[in-house]
Design goal:
Blueprint (H helix, E strand, L loop, with lengths): L1 E2 L6 E7 L4 E4 L4 E9 L3 E4 L2 E3 L3 E5 L2 E10 L3 E5 L5 E2 L1
Parallel strand pairs: 1-3, 2-8, 3-9, 4-8, 5-9
Antiparallel strand pairs: 4-7, 5-6, 7-10
Length: 85
Amino acid sequence: MIRTFGNHPQHVYLQLKKADLFLKMAEEQGIKAHIEGGASQISYNFRKIRLPYRFEKEGKAPVRLQIRTLESRIRIKEVRDAKII
């Protein structure tokens, strides 16, 4: 599980093979994300999405997130009103 904190900007780069990932964002925090992978399952606010996937949301102390994976399950929660790039 990775949880971000909304008080300072962060940059996260993850490269996973089979590890499951749960990402929970602070509500007011901004994000710019790029997720790509092979046979992975991505759940974004409880709906399945296809890869590659890019989205962004304005907010304070933005997080730049880049994830590359092969077979991991990824769940992203608490990112509302994000715009698909």
